[in-house]
Predict the structure.
Amino acid sequence: MPAMTTERSNTGHGEVFNKALLPASFDPLASLSRDVGGGMHWPIAPTSLLLLYLGSPEHARCIHLIAEGAFGGGLVDGKGEIIPGLEDLFDGGSTTTFVDLGVDLGTYGNAYLQRVFNRATGRIVLMRRLPAITMRKYGTAGFVQTTRDQYGMETRTFFAPDEIVHLKPPCPMGHFYALPDWISASGMIELANAATEWNATFFKNGAMPEYAMIVKGSTLTDPQKQAAREFFRREFRGLDNAHKTLFLSFDNKETEVDFERITAEMKDGDFLKMLDAARDRIHMAHGVPPRLLGIMHAGGLGGGGEITGQLKIFEDLRLSAIRRRTRDQMAPTYRALGLNPADIRHRPLDLTPPDTDREKVKDWLDANIIDRDEARSLAGIDGETALAKSRAGRLAVLTKMLAES
């Protein structure tokens, strides 16, 4: 019979955790990637993968789009109906549980579902997601979860092998842990994040001067030097202080003050091409169509037809594969509950054409996937004439004519 065991200990070498005694760079989460009582190391520290998630809006958005698209429709039977007996077993409901697992899969490449057993009957009575960042494989004994409370007290919880369902994508590495399927774009994510931070630091600190102030025909007095020093230190740095003027007064009429550029001029958009390239590679690695992220490429048709087409590709080639693999990995659990895995599925995306669903058109407009004119045309607000004049409308009319011929 599987049994979960828990032990608590102080962090460090048997001492109560006291952050004041640790280096300023200490990160409690970082220690989760270390060996934890025999736990197997991840190939890439999960905290590093978390930093990539935090550093790229495109990357984070792709993760949530896939998680919601794959699992947000809920767990249903073959007729599309909710399965009450199964639904009640999930802590917080199956939809929330699997979406959370999907976010872990997208961020870390690994997700963990705990199966809680009734010790007397051996039946599964509860299923809940365990955050992947806290989990490690514990040799052949099962799994170990390491968490810390607000006082730094460490808790290690051990799980038998059949208490945990380990979900993961296909991985060529063949290790117990899987690499995220977007890992090939990690370099571009880091590069885009570095460029963003460099620009932010430049404006925040003013650490690299653009100009040198050169005084000719006179010598600055100590108060003048101090005034200039304080100006560049406190009044010139930061976005709110941009374009402020330094005033210096000289008694000597022969005194000249020049500002000479000593660094290359920074132009607006110096990093835009690189950021655009990184953005494109990120959504390509995730398999998320660009229009779902609000990205419009030159030459695109726009309108509902293009969006519906990209949604169908997203559903057929990306989301359905994730659902199928998840169902296969959950199959032993469903069988243990007396259910046929073939009769259980996650509800797929509704690919109803947008011109018959005004609410979807509104959602796409709010997400900047389509512009206002396209939205009005797709929703039929301007009538048949306006719809026929729109790009999507002309395509719809042409498609209808071809279908009727």
In short: Residues 303-336 form the longest helix (34 residues). DSSP finds twelve helices and eleven strands in the chain.
